[in-house]
Amino acid sequence: MIDREITALLAYAAKLDSRVRRTLDTPEQAARTIGDWTSALAHVPATAPDVSWDASHAIRRYYEQRDGDRSATYRAVEPYVVLTAWSTKAGDLLDRHTDPIPAVDPDDPRAYRAELAVTRAAVAAGRIPPAQHQDAINPAGQDRLAALLPGVGKRYIPADVAGQLAVFRPTRAAREAAVAAGQPDPYAYACTWCGAEPDQSCRTGVRRHDKGRGTRSTPHPCRTDAARRAAGGRR
Questions:
Q1: Residue 174: how many other CB atoms lie within 10 Å
Q2: Strand (E) positions, the chain?
Q3: How much is the average pLDDT of 144-158?
Protein backbone atom coordinates (compact mmCIF):
# COMPACT_ATOMS: atom_id res chain seq x y z
CA MET A 1 0.00 0.00 0.00
CA ILE A 2 1.06 3.58 -0.63
CA ASP A 3 0.43 6.71 1.45
CA ARG A 4 -2.87 7.52 -0.26
CA GLU A 5 -4.23 4.02 0.37
CA ILE A 6 -3.01 4.02 3.97
CA THR A 7 -4.72 7.38 4.53
CA ALA A 8 -8.03 5.93 3.32
CA LEU A 9 -7.54 2.81 5.45
CA LEU A 10 -6.85 4.85 8.59
CA ALA A 11 -9.85 7.08 7.89
CA TYR A 12 -12.00 3.94 7.86
CA ALA A 13 -10.41 2.67 11.08
CA ALA A 14 -11.01 6.08 12.69
CA LYS A 15 -14.75 5.60 12.14
CA LEU A 16 -14.58 2.48 14.27
CA ASP A 17 -12.13 3.66 16.93
CA SER A 18 -11.75 7.21 18.24
CA ARG A 19 -8.20 6.45 19.37
CA VAL A 20 -7.13 6.04 15.74
CA ARG A 21 -8.85 9.33 14.93
CA ARG A 22 -6.80 11.09 17.62
CA THR A 23 -3.55 9.95 15.96
CA LEU A 24 -4.62 11.96 12.90
CA ASP A 25 -5.58 15.17 14.72
CA THR A 26 -2.56 17.23 13.69
CA PRO A 27 -0.58 17.18 10.43
CA GLU A 28 2.51 16.01 12.32
CA GLN A 29 0.68 13.15 14.03
CA ALA A 30 -1.04 12.14 10.79
CA ALA A 31 2.25 12.12 8.85
CA ARG A 32 3.94 10.00 11.51
CA THR A 33 1.07 7.49 11.71
CA ILE A 34 0.73 7.21 7.93
CA GLY A 35 4.49 6.78 7.55
CA ASP A 36 4.60 3.97 10.12
CA TRP A 37 1.70 2.12 8.51
CA THR A 38 3.08 2.55 4.99
CA SER A 39 6.46 1.19 6.05
CA ALA A 40 4.89 -1.86 7.68
CA LEU A 41 2.39 -2.63 4.92
CA ALA A 42 4.31 -1.63 1.80
CA HIS A 43 3.98 -5.11 0.26
CA VAL A 44 0.33 -5.61 1.23
CA PRO A 45 -2.29 -4.63 -1.36
CA ALA A 46 -5.15 -2.37 -0.33
CA THR A 47 -7.58 -4.42 -2.40
CA ALA A 48 -7.26 -7.45 -4.68
CA PRO A 49 -10.71 -8.20 -6.13
CA ASP A 50 -9.52 -11.28 -8.04
CA VAL A 51 -8.64 -13.02 -4.78
CA SER A 52 -11.36 -11.47 -2.57
CA TRP A 53 -9.06 -9.30 -0.46
CA ASP A 54 -9.77 -5.91 1.12
CA ALA A 55 -7.56 -4.57 3.92
CA SER A 56 -10.49 -2.71 5.49
CA HIS A 57 -12.25 -6.04 6.04
CA ALA A 58 -9.30 -7.22 8.15
CA ILE A 59 -9.68 -4.16 10.37
CA ARG A 60 -13.41 -4.65 10.78
CA ARG A 61 -12.94 -8.34 11.66
CA TYR A 62 -10.40 -7.30 14.30
CA TYR A 63 -12.95 -5.16 16.11
CA GLU A 64 -15.72 -7.70 15.70
CA GLN A 65 -13.56 -10.40 17.24
CA ARG A 66 -12.50 -8.12 20.09
CA ASP A 67 -16.11 -7.26 20.85
CA GLY A 68 -16.86 -10.96 21.12
CA ASP A 69 -14.00 -11.59 23.58
CA ARG A 70 -14.88 -9.65 26.73
CA SER A 71 -11.84 -10.94 28.63
CA ALA A 72 -9.30 -9.64 26.08
CA THR A 73 -7.39 -6.42 26.65
CA TYR A 74 -8.93 -3.95 24.24
CA ARG A 75 -6.30 -2.31 22.03
CA ALA A 76 -6.52 0.01 19.08
CA VAL A 77 -5.85 -1.51 15.70
CA GLU A 78 -2.21 -1.62 14.61
CA PRO A 79 -0.46 -2.55 11.34
CA TYR A 80 0.19 -6.11 12.53
CA VAL A 81 -3.57 -6.81 12.29
CA VAL A 82 -3.57 -6.23 8.53
CA LEU A 83 -0.16 -7.82 8.12
CA THR A 84 -1.24 -11.05 9.85
CA ALA A 85 -4.47 -11.24 7.86
CA TRP A 86 -2.60 -10.77 4.57
CA SER A 87 0.04 -13.37 5.48
CA THR A 88 -2.73 -15.91 6.08
CA LYS A 89 -4.41 -14.95 2.80
CA ALA A 90 -1.17 -15.18 0.79
CA GLY A 91 -0.40 -18.59 2.27
CA ASP A 92 -3.85 -19.83 1.30
CA LEU A 93 -3.41 -18.53 -2.26
CA LEU A 94 -0.11 -20.37 -2.67
CA ASP A 95 -1.59 -23.56 -1.21
CA ARG A 96 -4.30 -23.47 -3.88
CA HIS A 97 -1.90 -22.60 -6.69
CA THR A 98 -0.80 -25.19 -9.26
CA ASP A 99 2.15 -24.08 -11.36
CA PRO A 100 1.11 -23.68 -15.01
CA ILE A 101 3.54 -24.91 -17.65
CA PRO A 102 6.00 -22.07 -18.37
CA ALA A 103 6.09 -20.76 -21.93
CA VAL A 104 9.91 -20.89 -22.04
CA ASP A 105 12.06 -23.70 -23.37
CA PRO A 106 11.97 -26.53 -20.76
CA ASP A 107 15.60 -27.32 -21.66
CA ASP A 108 16.57 -23.95 -20.18
CA PRO A 109 16.24 -24.72 -16.44
CA ARG A 110 17.23 -21.22 -15.32
CA ALA A 111 14.52 -19.52 -17.41
CA TYR A 112 12.03 -22.25 -16.48
CA ARG A 113 12.56 -21.73 -12.75
CA ALA A 114 12.56 -17.96 -13.15
CA GLU A 115 9.14 -17.96 -14.80
CA LEU A 116 7.74 -20.23 -12.10
CA ALA A 117 9.12 -17.89 -9.43
CA VAL A 118 7.60 -14.83 -11.10
CA THR A 119 4.19 -16.49 -11.30
CA ARG A 120 4.30 -17.61 -7.67
CA ALA A 121 5.34 -14.13 -6.54
CA ALA A 122 2.42 -12.60 -8.44
CA VAL A 123 0.02 -15.06 -6.77
CA ALA A 124 1.48 -14.36 -3.32
CA ALA A 125 1.12 -10.60 -3.93
CA GLY A 126 -2.52 -10.95 -4.97
CA ARG A 127 -1.89 -9.62 -8.48
CA ILE A 128 -3.24 -12.77 -10.14
CA PRO A 129 -5.50 -15.55 -8.82
CA PRO A 130 -4.00 -18.98 -8.14
CA ALA A 131 -3.89 -21.31 -11.14
CA GLN A 132 -5.72 -24.55 -10.48
CA HIS A 133 -5.03 -27.22 -13.13
CA GLN A 134 -5.63 -24.74 -15.93
CA ASP A 135 -3.87 -26.89 -18.51
CA ALA A 136 -6.29 -29.72 -17.81
CA ILE A 137 -9.42 -27.65 -18.31
CA ASN A 138 -8.61 -25.05 -20.96
CA PRO A 139 -9.01 -25.97 -24.67
CA ALA A 140 -5.27 -26.12 -25.33
CA GLY A 141 -4.75 -28.46 -22.39
CA GLN A 142 -7.62 -30.67 -23.51
CA ASP A 143 -6.10 -30.94 -26.98
CA ARG A 144 -2.76 -32.04 -25.50
CA LEU A 145 -4.48 -34.63 -23.32
CA ALA A 146 -6.44 -35.98 -26.28
CA ALA A 147 -3.20 -36.44 -28.20
CA LEU A 148 -1.60 -38.33 -25.30
CA LEU A 149 -4.47 -40.67 -24.42
CA PRO A 150 -4.13 -43.10 -27.37
CA GLY A 151 -0.57 -43.89 -26.31
CA VAL A 152 -1.60 -44.43 -22.71
CA GLY A 153 -4.75 -46.50 -23.27
CA LYS A 154 -6.25 -47.77 -20.03
CA ARG A 155 -2.90 -47.75 -18.27
CA TYR A 156 -1.68 -45.12 -15.88
CA ILE A 157 1.62 -45.11 -17.78
CA PRO A 158 2.39 -45.63 -21.50
CA ALA A 159 2.97 -49.21 -22.67
CA ASP A 160 6.61 -48.61 -23.63
CA VAL A 161 7.38 -47.24 -20.16
CA ALA A 162 5.64 -50.21 -18.53
CA GLY A 163 7.82 -52.50 -20.65
CA GLN A 164 10.97 -50.85 -19.38
CA LEU A 165 9.76 -51.21 -15.79
CA ALA A 166 8.84 -54.88 -16.18
CA VAL A 167 12.33 -56.07 -15.18
CA PHE A 168 11.93 -54.25 -11.85
CA ARG A 169 8.35 -55.49 -11.30
CA PRO A 170 8.33 -59.13 -12.40
CA THR A 171 5.19 -60.04 -10.43
CA ARG A 172 3.22 -57.14 -11.88
CA ALA A 173 4.54 -57.90 -15.38
CA ALA A 174 3.55 -61.58 -15.13
CA ARG A 175 0.10 -60.64 -13.88
CA GLU A 176 -0.48 -58.20 -16.73
CA ALA A 177 0.77 -60.71 -19.30
CA ALA A 178 -1.63 -63.38 -17.96
CA VAL A 179 -4.59 -61.01 -18.08
CA ALA A 180 -3.64 -59.87 -21.60
CA ALA A 181 -3.57 -63.53 -22.69
CA GLY A 182 -7.07 -64.07 -21.32
CA GLN A 183 -5.99 -66.17 -18.35
CA PRO A 184 -7.65 -65.79 -14.91
CA ASP A 185 -6.00 -63.34 -12.53
CA PRO A 186 -5.21 -65.01 -9.16
CA TYR A 187 -4.22 -61.68 -7.58
CA ALA A 188 -7.80 -60.48 -7.89
CA TYR A 189 -8.63 -62.78 -4.96
CA ALA A 190 -7.49 -62.89 -1.33
CA CYS A 191 -5.08 -65.66 -0.36
CA THR A 192 -6.61 -68.04 2.17
CA TRP A 193 -3.15 -69.43 3.03
CA CYS A 194 -1.02 -66.37 3.90
CA GLY A 195 -3.83 -63.81 4.28
CA ALA A 196 -2.68 -61.49 1.45
CA GLU A 197 -5.40 -59.10 0.34
CA PRO A 198 -6.48 -58.79 -3.32
CA ASP A 199 -3.83 -57.07 -5.47
CA GLN A 200 -1.14 -57.87 -2.86
CA SER A 201 1.67 -60.39 -3.33
CA CYS A 202 1.63 -63.59 -1.33
CA ARG A 203 3.96 -63.78 1.67
CA THR A 204 6.74 -66.28 2.29
CA GLY A 205 8.00 -67.97 5.43
CA VAL A 206 4.66 -67.93 7.21
CA ARG A 207 2.31 -70.31 8.82
CA ARG A 208 -1.33 -70.07 8.00
CA HIS A 209 -2.69 -66.58 8.82
CA ASP A 210 0.58 -65.48 10.46
CA LYS A 211 2.61 -62.40 9.51
CA GLY A 212 5.11 -63.09 6.75
CA ARG A 213 8.78 -62.24 6.40
CA GLY A 214 8.82 -61.55 2.67
CA THR A 215 6.85 -61.73 -0.59
CA ARG A 216 6.53 -64.45 -3.21
CA SER A 217 6.99 -63.85 -6.91
CA THR A 218 4.12 -66.28 -7.59
CA PRO A 219 0.74 -66.67 -5.88
CA HIS A 220 -0.12 -69.56 -3.59
CA PRO A 221 -2.06 -72.35 -5.33
CA CYS A 222 -5.26 -71.52 -3.45
CA ARG A 223 -5.46 -68.15 -5.25
CA THR A 224 -4.88 -69.76 -8.64
CA ASP A 225 -7.62 -72.29 -7.89
CA ALA A 226 -10.00 -69.51 -6.85
CA ALA A 227 -9.34 -67.64 -10.11
CA ARG A 228 -9.92 -70.77 -12.19
CA ARG A 229 -13.15 -71.58 -10.37
CA ALA A 230 -14.41 -68.04 -10.93
CA ALA A 231 -13.44 -68.17 -14.60
CA GLY A 232 -15.23 -71.51 -14.99
CA GLY A 233 -18.34 -70.13 -13.34
CA ARG A 234 -18.41 -67.18 -15.73
CA ARG A 235 -18.25 -69.54 -18.68
A1: 15
A2: 47-48, 53-54, 203-204, 214-215
A3: 58
Q: Is the pLDDT of residue 12 over 90?
A: yes
Q: Can you say how many angstroms the Cα of residue 51 is from the centroid of all Cα atoms in its chain?
A: 17
Phi, psi (5° rounding) for residue 177? -65, -40
pLDDT tens-digit map of 38-88: 999 999 999 998 889 999 999 999 988 755 555 444 788 999 999 999 999
181 burial type by CB count under 10 A (0-12 exposed, 13-18 middle, 19+ buried) = exposed
Positive or negative: CA dihedral 177, 183, 187, 188: positive
Q: What is the mean pLDDT of the chain?
A: 81
String of b and e for 91-127 (b: at least 16 CB within 10 Å)?
Answer: eebeeebeebebeeeeeeeeebeebeeebbeebbbbe
Q: Answer yes or no: are the C-beta atoms of 203 and 196 closer than 8 Å.
A: yes
- The pTM score is 0.52
Asked if residues 45 and 1 have their Cβ atoms less than 8 Å apart, the reply is: yes
Query: For residues 187 and 184, what is the distance between their CA atoms, to the nearest angstrom?
Result: 9
d(CA 111, CA 95): 23
Contact predicate 187/223, CB 8 Å:
yes
